[in-house]
Input
Amino acid sequence: MKILALATSLTLALLSTACSTAGTPSDTANRTPAATARWTFDGNIKNNSLAISPDERLAVVSYSERPDVVIYDLTSGKVRVVLNDFVTPRNIVFAPGGQRFYVSDSSLGTVSIIETATFKTVGSLPTGAGTFGTTLSQDGGTLYINNQAASTVTAYDPAAQQPRAVVTGFAQPRQGVRLSPDGKTLYVTNFLGDKISIVDTATHKITGEIKGFDKLRAISVTADGKTIFAANSGSNSVAIVDVVQRAITAKVPVGKDPYGAALTPDGQFVYVGNLADNTVSVISVASRQVVVTISGFKEPRQAIVFTRDGKWAYVLNEDLSVAKVDRSSQRVVGTIAAPARPI
Output
């Protein structure tokens, strides 16, 4: 495996060409859903995303089947604004200070940089058609971007809007990409081969892999960096991975077609979105068993986010409505209604 430096003008030109071919998002206040053609690069691959601003006032959501990105006001429980300048939005992540957020789009081949105060696009990171999952370092200095079509991961400096390196050697990395708590290791899921690649973030080299999954979906890493929880939609289970051994040590049965594997802030539970069951399974990390199954969702996937105090969980539904779960009672206590789907 080798690192491809993107400092050369040739590579940057290729990326720019790919971006311009797919189209580049701009401020969507001046555009309508009808203005964006519904051509998709990889429309057969479906996923959703939910990100909450650091001040916990806004929720930004997307579903790859829809070209709109919806921003909710969590205080009022209503739609704040709808951005329509996307085709297949894949993942959303906020900068640490909350002043901007990033939206990847696999058809446009870019990651849009959107200013939170104005909801205007202030930059675009070209990574080519197939741009998928993203994760941001704790200091916000590096954005890692999966490209499932090129089977690469790009390390970007989002402030300078310049790529640092492209790591090769993956097999269709899609939504799943997570950093270890110390930021030294990047874990990347591979759709082909059902494995997790382990990347050294200092050298941008793959140092190993973990195998044995069955239709691997979302992953989460514990705060001590020793354990990974991984959803297996093929076997209706969540795999528990020993990071040191680089091996699956147990599998916990959950609902049908699990996509999510979100750790609570205290690290004591894992919430699993079961697509086919319309439920969320809650796994106790201590007992490694499902302790409760919550109903009242519509095709929940990997988009599950908790408030910092751990009292509430937000779960994104297929129609872009957001279910609010009271974790003390483990039930849905309200749902923020979604805007009408663009035609």
